[in-house]
Amino acid sequence: MKRAKSAEPRGRRARKEAGKTTTTTTTHNKKKLQKRGNKRGGSGGKKERWGRHYEDKRNWREYNEKLVERGGMYVSIDFLESWGKEVERMNEGKVGAPYQYPESLMIFLGFVYVMFRFGYRELEGFLRKLKEYIPAVPAAPDYSQIWRRVREIGLNIQETLLSHHDEDVVISLDSSGVKVSNRGEWMREKWKVRRGWIKVHVAVDERGKQCVALEVTDEAVGDSRMFKPLVEEAVSNIKSKGGRVRQANGDGGYDTKDDFNTLDEMGVTPGIKMRKNASTRARGSPLRKKHVREYKELGYKKWRDKYRYGYRWRAEGNLSAVKRLTGECVRAVKLENMLREAKMKFLFYNAILKFDATGELPWATTISQK
After folding, report:
1. Mean of all residue pLDDT scores within the chain
2. Does residue 334 lie within any of the structural domains?
3. Structural domain boundaries enclosing 263
4. Do 224 and 268 fall within a single domain?
5. What is the pTM of this model?
6. What are the residue ranges in the chain where pLDDT is below 70?
7. Does the chain have fewer CB atoms within 10 Å around its N or its C terminus?
């Protein structure tokens, strides 16, 4: 019985046809790259960047020294200097069992919890070991007491801000998600486990790169809904530091008449990117109508340069820096504690930026600010 001929080429014929295919594919790819390069204005080269060339004006020697000095901040125990006086003041008029540990100690432990990602039991062990090297440290509190006190620390955002004396401040608004679990991609993809996110909304100062307003919600809350609370909080916080908000920047998610009306009421200039098909009619917001018409007359690039919209990345940079330093997830289990922990991350990053500029520690100045 004769064997049926195979439809696939074999031997030298197969190798010959494979070579033809490779040559054809390579020639096709070369033509494709050449065509793409011609569109870009070069022979397959890199696309030229539009806009002005970025000039790196940072003093790297000074910046490197600031990062080195942060290491000293992480192990500073200045709270010992005011321990006795602070506990005495905290117990004035207190009903019930007296405090034994100052608020400044709990702020320091909260900082270690967030930055080094220690557990509360590890924090108790950390203090025990610290007492061996520094006898001035009193007995270490129990981990459960550390947990209760740290989750209720009275660190205020205004205490972490730099001075804005007689300064016009430009703020940028943005939001980002924080994971509620450290489960990896395998668990999510393999077992379809989804625990959702919590959402952090921030307003960031363009010059100091600090978060001047902060709100933490669940993932269902939209950006535009938190615009008014953020701007109001930013105006209040900057005013307490001697400054005033001159402009508020935001992406297209904040392009609503309500948000423009909020800025109009507060006398703040909007730097919000409008949609391409935005209507030039007022429809309840004369300020938005004015800026939409200006945006269409100038075009995006001229509008961007006039309002320095490119500096909106300060908000994105703040969100990114906090996640890189403190991690992209929270460790708390209850929603209430998750929101508190996420807030602590941003407040302590603010404190780090303030330390870089002034050398002030958040736990060393607690007693003097109360």
Report:
1. 86
2. no
3. 165-329
4. yes
5. 0.82
6. 1-52, 365-370
7. N
